[in-house]
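Internal QA ticket QA-208
Title: Verify multi-chain structure generation after dependency bump
Assignee: T.L.

Test input:
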Amino acid sequence: MIELFKQPNIDWMGKAKFFFGLSLLLLIIGWTSVFLKGGPTGGGLPYSIDFKGGTNVDVRFAKAPNVDQLRSALSAQGLGGSEIQAISDNAIPGAQANEVVISLEQKGQADQALDTSKAQVLTALNVIYGQGNANHPDFNAATPASLNDILTQRDPLVLTINAGDRYQQLAKSILQYRDKEANGVLTNFDDLAKVNGVTAPVLSSLKDSYALGPFTIRNVEIVGPKVGAELRLQAVYVTLYALAGMLVYIAFRFEWVYGAAAVLAVFHDVLITLGFFSLLHFEISLTVIAALLTLVGYSMNDTIVIFDRIRENNRLLRKESFADVVNKSINQTLSRTILTSGLTFLTVLVLFLMGGQVLRAFSFALVVGIVVGTYSSFGIAAPLVVAWVNWRGHGSAVGAGPAAGSKARGSEGAPGRLAAAGRRS
Amino acid sequence: MTPNLKWKALFILAVILFCIYFLVGYPTFPTSVAQVKDNFAHQIKLGLDLQGGTHLILQVQVQEAVAQETDQTVDRLTAALRAKNITYDEVRRADDTHILVRKIDPAQLNAFRDLITAQYGNVWDLGSAAGDPDSYTLTLRTGAIAQIQETTMNLSLETIERRINALGLTEPTIQLHGRKDNEILVQLPGEGDPTRAIHVIQEGGQLELKLVEDPVTYTSQLDALQKHGGVLPAGTELVPGDAPSRSVSGTPDVGESWYLLSRAPIITGRDLRTAQENRNTGNPSLYQVNFSLSADAARRFGPFTEQNINRQMAIVLDKRVYSAPVIKGKIEDSGEITGNFSQQTAHDLALVLRAGALPASIKFLEERTVGPSLGADSIRHGVQASVLSLLVVMIFMLVYYRYSGANAVLALILNLLILLFFLAMFGAVLTLPGIAGVILTIGMGVDSNVLVFERIREELRNGKSAPSAVQAGFDKAFLTIIDTHVTTVVSAFFLFLFGTGPIRGFAITLTIGLIANVFTAIYVSKTIFQYHLSKMDRQGELSI
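Actual output:
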């Protein structure tokens, strides 16, 4: 049997002061960054477009674009304040950044059509790269339907009325090649020869009907300012409601102090993770909120496993001090804690390294969150309960509530145990 | 094997087979790998963030409909007061929900009150206007406002639905969004360029045919007012439009022109039977929209045009005059809208006219378009990373817990299968936040197994025999697993209740995953252990 720990015997509660200090330090570092950069609503937390409103246009080019030229073309459209951020794809090491995200603040005029800025960005791009010609539309902008139309009309396979859905299938595979293998921008029609079913006549009719545009729009996000502010508020409320729900459930299953400690610990995890987002400037989007909620789930899970053990041990080890019971519980669950957290950490680390640009901020939240969440279950939640019990009971141990169905608890326990327990069976 | 155990094993096998069949063997039984893929793609729908497509959130300006109701009431009330010979100074809209009636003759107050109660009493409240004797305020009731808002939202939703459906896009979603603020969500999977959809949605589509009261046009509203001595003739209004005439050289006059039209329309968009784009007969490079009227409208339109031969009739679209042709003869049931239309704009206008007018204007709050290549990127990266991490976890479990690890791996795979099955059954869409839910599920699945296994090891260390250690391990870990899972489900419940869009998707995936997890980590895993124990002699060692 492989074992990570053989009967660990660590005095966790003796190190509580160190843990509290460490947490305080992490909180201070992160939130100093938040406040130095303008506070939680003033830019200290780098909100994505989801929460602040604005326009993002993600453009992928066939060749690495000239950013200066792009900037001056945007200025000519009155978009001088736009931010151009190069995106590199980690999956291909050493690849040039062929992709940029052009971000614009939301314009003040409420009556202005929402997509004005997008249209201006497109105009600027067309000024530099030339506009597609009406007789030869851009292949990189073709949709399955339009490609199917052209193929059916040209009929390179001479299928006439027997075509059925052959051209539809062909159009689908051609565009699948463009989007998956060529990353959305095809640079040479001859590359399509690799696609199953693309014969020389098909290729030549494609060449006759289409031109190859030098860029493609990968993603457009336009969010009105009202929506952004509303979503931000909603995300905060939803998280608070979820925490309150957990607090009530844990209080019901254990005791109020356990619920409070668990929620405080989880709250601490979220705050530290947000601090890291500010420090390293990862954008907080709706997806990141989902990641934060995931980490709330994980951290809570770890905490409850330890609490559960405390509850159980408290019934068995009546003679020991409460701090010793907690220490023992943490030690007994330690290999489980390390195993589970280690495995999940590995999972999200893979996601962070391989998940590509879209998943990066999301998996970053989980990478940080799982480390902090695991730590907080024994470093914050458990010591908080011990501190409360010591304060209420002047040093003697206190049992967890009996809601789990214990009938073993007698009334002969030390008075201190009962003082803080609040309820007994 | 005891009969009980046999039934359990059969039940688990049936669940596995059913899930697999539902996910890949349906609707047509697959005979090739491609068909398996097709079936799977048919069952598991991807969200727009993974599939590519356009997501729009728009707001219906319902207060416009309320204001319109108030305006119409002002018109009707004015007519009614005149008909009953009740004298008054002025009837006007004070704001969107209030009408001010000034200086009613005190002698006719009772007649006025009766009129209001009889005709408007169910929708309007009558009260004295503050600080103005003999004047009264009509207030639109809250219930009536809510009614107008609801009708407007439903009508807008239906109209937008008809318009989008007519564009022929694949599987569009049009639904109310959120619980307040009159928002509508439109999702167009696979649509990379929403410009046209946005245009078609936003078009008011309110067509009116009105008689031109004054053959000349004016360059501004002021100009028109001056020519009429400051007051427009009763029952008329000024409507802007493009210049009607062409100069001798044939170039159109530039700038706005104002037409004096009769207020009441002869024909509105509701009277249309069909509308179709056609090449302009006079100028083949342009397009026009031809429409025909319903039989009922045609019965009105025929006599009307006969009586007004040689007068002009304006074609007004969204409060703008498109053209004002002279009525040359009796027209039964058809007409045309000419203007500077290309084939596509004419096509879209015809579509909008067929679909009907919007009851209020539309404002866009949010537009997101994910191109197909970005969606493909996200899927590829997400799937690669998930598969790799799943493999790492499984290999680790096998090495660390040996044969029992195989048990955990099986439970994990079954967990994923059941999760996917329920996602498919509820028609839920898999989004990026949904993948977060899947990851959390996998994490908690691994955790449940680790909890149980560590517990069994502890019991073994304490000297228990294999069967009793397994029993004790499951018993003791059971409460912990229930507590962790219920806590997470409670939070997911709140997320579902108060969250929107992506957060809801996360909550749904998570809840299903956790329920599946309790089943696999406790029921399935325990059954496998029991099976293993039944094959083993009493003193044998458990491979854990």
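Spot checks passed. The mean pLDDT of chain B is 84.
Status: verified.
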